[in-house]
Amino acid sequence: MNVHRPWRLLAFSCVAAAVPSARADVPAVVAPPGRHVTVSLVSEDDAVQPGKPLTVGIRLQMQPGWHTYWRNPGDSGLPTRARWTLPAGFEAGEIRWPRPMRFKFGPVQSFGYEMEVVLPVEIKVPASAAGLEVRLAVHVDWLECQEACLPGKADLSLALPVRATARPGPQAALVAAARALLPATDSAWRFSAAPSGDAVVLTVQPPRGSSFDDAWFYPLLPHVLDHAKAQQAVRGPAGYRITLTRDPNGTLPDAGRGR
Question: Is the pTM of this model over 0.90?
Answer without folding.
Answer: no
